[in-house]
Design brief:
With 71 residues, the protein is α+β, with helices and mostly antiparallel strands. The protein has a two-stranded antiparallel sheet. The longest helix is centred in the middle third of the chain and has 25 residues. The two termini are 32 Å apart. Belongs to the G-protein coupled receptor 1 family. InterPro entries: GPCR_Rhodpsn, GPCR_Rhodpsn_7TM. This is G-protein coupled receptors family 1 profile domain-containing protein. Keywords: G-protein coupled receptor, Membrane, Receptor, Transducer, Transmembrane, Transmembrane helix. GO terms for molecular function: tachykinin receptor activity.
């Protein structure tokens, strides 16, 4: 608000807290699918080494066959 309308009176404390709560709730809801469908996989190589990586395992399959990932 200070950038968009710098000369207008300030927002009340209650409105500011409600705006912050709405922003945090929206970001949490947008991040929820990543929390629910993230998984880790371990890949082992022939030389004995292994690496762990994170991937999204959607209900309709993994990349590249998942249509949920494109949505």
């Amino acid at each position: 608000m200070a950038i968009v309308r710098p000369l207008k009176h300030r927002m009340s404390r209650r409105k500011a807290l409600l705006a912050l709560l709405a922003i945090w709730m929206a970001s949490g809801l947008l991040a929820l699918p990543c929390l629910l469908y993230s998984t880790t996989r371990t890949r082992r190589y022939s030389n004995g080494q292994s690496s762990v990586f994170c991937m999204m395992q959607w209900p309709d399959g993994a990349y590249p066959t998942s249509t949920s990932e494109h949505v």
